[in-house]
C-alpha cells in the first residue's frame, strides 16, 4: 500500500475491551502455584457467602468445579493417576448480567507430560514445558492489567501467594481480543452498517487475495448484524502496518429492542473490532501475551479510521456515543493516527487494472465465456463454471492462467481477486454483450434497410463498418444521434476515432451534419465517465485542432 498522508488526533473516544481469551503459563515458582490452588480449592466455593475487593468493587466466585485431567502425575508426585484441573469463575457481585469478570481454568505444567491412559506424550504441551501452572482465561470487559489484578486478588482471597501470578512465561499467548464502543442506532444504520455503509464498501475487498468474509443480517431491523473479516494483507491495503487478522462488525443484541425508552443502551448498536486465532489464513493462531498493547492499539486504529471513512464523529460526542454498564463516553488516553479513505482510489485503480488485463486481443471467445460465467457468483469449482460457460474444464484453467492478475484458483475453486474486480468485469461483459447485441441489430437493420448508418443495400456502409470496428454503440437515432464508445480511451484516442468516423460518414448515406452534431458517451483511462460530448464543435473534432497533439 502506498504511503498516505495522515494526521494524529488526540481527542478520540475511549473504547472498551470486551473479551480477552488467553493461555498463560507462570513458571517462576515451579509447580507451587498449582499445589497451592489444589490445596485451597473447595467444590463449594461458589456457595460460600464470601466476597473480596479489587479496584473498588466487590467480587464473588460464581462457579467452582474440578475434574480429572488427561495428564499423568509427574515422577515427583506421591501417587499415580491423573492430575486434577480446576475452574473458578469470578464476577463483580453487583453485576446483574455476569459480564464483568473472568472464567479461570488452572492446570499443571511440566516437561514430558504424558497421557494418563496411553502413556503417550501430550501433543498440546511442549516436551520441554517447565514446571509451572497453566491458566486458561476467558475474561469479559476486563483489560489485561485489570485481569492480572483480579487474578492476584483472587489468589489472596484463597490464601494463595499473589506473586505466583506476576510474570507470565514467554510462551503465554492470546487467542482472542475484542474492543468496542456503543454508538447511536441512527448513526450506525445510516453510515456504518446497511446499504451504502462503510462496512459494505470494505466488503468489496473481502474475497480473494488471502482470506476475507462478509456477513450480514437485516431481517429484524436494518443492520441487526454486519461484519467484515479480512486477513492482514487485505487490511494493509486499507491501512499501513497492519499485522492482525481482524473482524470489524456493527451489531445489535440477539433480541432486538424495538423501541427506545431512553434508558436502555441495548437499543443502540455496538461497533466492535475482534481478533480470534481462527482468522489467520496460513495456520498462524495466537498472539504473544506481551503484544497485548500493540494489538489493542491496532484494533483501536482500525475502528477509528473506519468511523472516519464513514463520516462518523470519533470524538467523545454524547450525541453519537451511548453509555452502557461497561462502556463510558470519554476520551482515550492516547492519540490515534487517522488516514484518508483509500477505498475510492483503490477501487478506481483495480477497475483500471481489470480493463488493462482484458485488453489482450488474443483472448479467446472461450476465455470470455468463462469470465462472463464467473460474474454470476463468488468462488466456485471449475467444473461448475465450465458447465455454466458451456466450455471445458481445461478452458477454465487456461482462463485462470491468462488472467492471473484478476483470477485465482485454489483447490479447484476459481474466484476473482476481490469484489471490485468482479464488478468491473461484470460491467465490461455487459458492454460486450450490448455491443454484440447492437452489432446483431445493425445486421438486421441492414437486411431491413433501416439502420441509421446503412446505405440501403445488402452490405454495411463505411460508417457502420467504422462503428463495428471501434465498438461504437448507437444509443438513440430517433432525433438527435447519440453514440457510446464501449471501451476506455484517452481524449487523443477518441479524437482519432471520431475523425475516422467523420470520414466514414462522408462516404455514407447519413447526412454528415447529423454525424457532426451527434453526442457521444465515453470513459477515460481513469474510470471517469463522460456524457454527451458533441463530436464536432466549431468545425473541429471535440473542439481541438491536431489529433496528434497532447490533450490529456
Automatic annotation (TrEMBL):
Chain ranges of the DUF7845 domain: 13-329
One Pfam entry name: DUF7845
Family matches, as InterPro entries: DUF7845
Name under which the protein is recorded: DUF7845 domain-containing protein
Species per Swiss-Prot/TrEMBL record: Haloarcula argentinensis
UniProt lineage: Archaea, Methanobacteriati, Methanobacteriota, Stenosarchaea group, Halobacteria
